[in-house]
Structures are given as structure tokens and as C-alpha cells.
Amino acid sequence: xxxxxxxxxxxxxxxxxxxxxxxxxxxxxxxxxxxxxxxxxxxxxxxxxxxxxxxxxxxxxxxxxxxxxxxxxxxxxxxxxxxxxxxxxxxxxxxxxxxxxxxxxxxxxxxxxxxxxxxxxxxxxxxxxxxxxxxxxxxxxxxxxxxxxxxxxxxxxxxxxxxxxxxxxxxxxxxxxxxxxxxxxxxxxxxxxxxxxxxxxxxxxxxxxxxxxxxxxxxxxxxxxxxxxxxxxxxxxxxxxxxxxxxxxxxxxxxxxxxxxxxxxxxxxxxxxxxxxxxxxxxxxxxxxxxxxxxxxxxxxxxxxxxxxxxxxxxxxxxxxxxxxxxxxxxxxxxxxxxxxxxxxxxxxxxxxxxxxxxxxxxxxxxxxxxxxxxxxxxxxxxxxxxxxxxxxxxxxxxxxxxxxxxxxxxxxxxxxxxxxxxxxxxxxxxxxxxxxxxxxxxxxxxxxxxxxx
Length: 454
Ligand SMILES: Nc1ncnc2c1ncn2[C@@H]1O[C@H](COP(=O)(O)OP(=O)(O)O)[C@@H](O)[C@H]1O
Ligand SMILES: O=P(O)(O)O[C@H]1O[C@H](CO)[C@@H](O[C@H]2O[C@H](CO)[C@@H](O)[C@H](O)[C@H]2O)[C@H](O)[C@H]1O
Prior knowledge:
Pathway: Glycan biosynthesis; glycogen biosynthesis. This protein is α+β, with helices and mostly antiparallel strands. The chain has helices at 10-29, 122-132, 189-199, 235-245, 250-270, 279-296, 304-315, 355-358, 365-379, 387-405, 413-434, 440-451; strands at residues 43-55, 58-67, 81-90, 101-104, 114-117, 136-138, 141-145, 157-159, 167-171, 175-179, 182-183, 210-214, 220-227, 233-234, 335-338, 341-344. It contains 12 helices and 16 strands. β15 (335-338) and β16 form a beta hairpin. The protein binds adenosine-5'-diphosphate (ADP) and ligand LMANGFYV.
């Protein structure tokens, strides 16, 4: 058995000491992680906000990464981002953990020990599930369970390796644990919303069975365990499969529209006093996001006047469906189909937005626009591009939605255009930061939306 380190008591080591051990390693490793938000900015300044020894050889850390100041309006440097890390610390990690290896600490209390991403280590993943099965405390961490759910122990863990905003471990094809990577203070909607929908009896969303949070440095949600749908395929895979076979996707899109309308109705019931901004306020916020995106992505600048017209039309429009809690980052990768049933996951919202903003009431058109953009993304994966495939999906999705919701998104031209534009602007920024090769996909939509004449 390789030697592992026990920091006992963890507080004795202190966060400054740990930084001496880990600072250099993490400065290199963090920016290479998909979930690291500041890819366009080097992580210059790291601090350890909290450290908890979850079990011997496994440290739970919250670290703050701030970046070199970049020119921002008023010259204010951007604040740092907080990340959740689970680090394995051993003298010699098993060769199977090579891909999780972060480095060997040279200084401080961990000097000489190898440090690795513990989520890849089946032993740590197993112990984490055991910890989740028992409500209680570990330092600032709080573990909670749904008393009605009985999660069995000993389920074999498997870390998902797909590119994600967070990290997920599947246990025995029965449960999936999502560990949020970028942590913001407050309740994460990906716990809050599925819990509230489960209380409404909405079966389209897997209900949380266990979760954990921190109390320090500020209260925040850290992870959620939900039932895993083993036979489900996500909408993106299904859509690409249909395109590859030359098939349509209208039956699936129509049923998806109906399912989304059901989720929206349940959300409105679960968060009844939601309120929401006037269209003018929403349009102003969209303009602010557009300007920020155009500062970051020069290719967007020529289109700004045309795009602003969409937001102007929204401001001049004084009706539309009532604002309510929404999904906030809806796309084909966030919906799973098992048999002929659609399920909706990942209620976190757009990860780069402040949590408070993601939890406010917004137009349900925002989600509809997200899905319509996703049909366009899928259609653009094929050469030649299949615009008619996306149009048919769009029509079917809206018709399915209208039949269940009692209002028709196709009649809300100003709202749809503004929300599609806002979403495409978000996607431009997202792709520029995370997947520059994909940038032409939202840019093609930007070109179309900027020229659109109602
Ligand atoms: N309850 C579930 N059942 C089956 N697969 C799931 C479930 N929840 C998530 N997944 C799979 O895990 C992937 C990542 O989940 P998601 O919540 O979107 O994480 P992230 O926020 O990191 O993108 C999904 O694309 C889906 O394939
Ligand atoms: O990781 P999340 O699922 O929270 O969402 C982020 O990543 C998505 C990509 O994985 C990104 O979605 C964009 O690309 C999809 C195809 O890969 C496409 O279906 C979506 O329509 C498009 O927005 C999403 O925007 C981002 O928040």
C-alpha cells in the first residue's frame, strides 16, 4: 500500500503552508482544465480559501485564482474565481493515476509527496460516496441526504471523461455525482431547482438524493448526487446521429418541446413569486453583455449595430409570457432521451454568469432560444450545412411547446430574436474562450441575426 499523508489536525498545516506546497503545481495545472474559466488570462495569484482532510490521503480544497488585470471599464481588475479541488496526496500514486497526476510538491507540509486529481482515484471516489451517504459535518463541509432515498454503498465509481463545465462520477450506473468546479457563494440552482421540481412531482428531472455544501469562506453548494439514467442518450448525440443517417428529427423535437413546456409549467408552480424584469431592463442587460463580448472578441464588432436593433425591438415590446425561473443554459446536451421520454438536466444556468442573476425570473423564451440555437449548431456539424433540417426541428419544437404551454413561441418574434441574439453572443464568447475552432458556428448566426429585418 503506498504511503499517504495524514494532516492531523488539518488546521495545523494552515492554508499558507499548503500554498507553499501546491501553489506552483496548481498554477500550471488549473489553466489546462476545461472547467477553468480564465483561459484567456493566466492564473497569477492563488490562495487557499479552505482545506479539509476528507479522509487520509484526500484533501478537499477551495482555492481562489485571480488573474493579471486586463483593461476593464473603469480600470477595475476582474475579481478572482473560486474552484473546488479534491486532491489525492501519496508518496507514489498507482500508475493507473498517471493521467490525474498534477506534480510532486517541493516545499511546505506536502514536500516530497505526489499530488493528483483525486476524482480519478477509485478509492477516493468510493470514500466520497460513503461520506455522502451519511449526513453530517467535516470541517466547514455539510453533507445532506434525502431521507426517503436509500443509496446503497459499494457502487463502482467511473469518472466521466467528456468535456464538461464540472466533473461527474457515475456510481454503478445507478447514481451520478456532479462536483461543481467553479464555486460561487449561494445555493446552486442545480440543487435548488431539481429539489423544487421533485417536490412538485415533476418526473422530467432526476431528483437529488444527496448533496454537500460548505459554510466557509461563504455558504455555497459543492456537489449533488442524482439518479443516473443508464439507458438515456443525450439530445446532441441523437441529433448528430439523425443528421448522419440523413434522417429528420421532428418527432423528437416536437416531444422535446412538449417536455420543456411541462418543465416550465412546473418551474412556474415551484417558484410562484418569481417577479422579473421589464423587457426594457432585459434589453439593456443584453446590450451590456454584447458590448462586453465585442470587447473580448474583435470579430463581433462589425455586427454590433445590427445586433443592437434586436435588443431595441425587445425594449419596445411590452408583452410576452410572464417571467419565471428557467433552465438558463438549455441546449441539446442538457436533455436526455430514454425510450420516448425526454429528461432535463443541469439547471446551473450559464456558468459564467453571477449566481444571483441566474436565479432571477426570466422569460421562458430564453430557454426556447437556447434550444433553437442548438438545432442550428447540430445542423452545422454536417457538410454541406443542412439549414432546412434545423428549420424543421425549430418548427416542430415550437409546435410541441405551444401545444402543451398554451402560448406559441412562434408568435413572439421580437422576444425570440432578442433572446436568440443574446444566446449567440454568449456562445461567441464561450467558443472564443473554450473551443476557438467552433467559433464560426455562432458567428454564422450572428451574421444572420445582425441582418435580419423582422
Ligand atoms: N441523471 C443523469 N443520467 C444520465 N446521464 C447523466 C445524468 N446527469 C448527467 N448525465 C451525463 O453527464 C453529462 C454531464 O452532465 P451535466 O450536468 O451537463 O454537467 P456539466 O455541468 O459539467 O456540463 C451529461 O451530458 C450527460 O451525458
Ligand atoms: O457545459 P455546459 O453543458 O454547462 O454548457 C456549456 O458548454 C456547451 C458545449 O458543451 C455549450 O453549448 C454550445 O455547444 C453545444 C454543442 O457542443 C450546442 O448544442 C449548444 O447549443 C451551444 O450553446 C454551452 O453554451 C455552454 O454553456
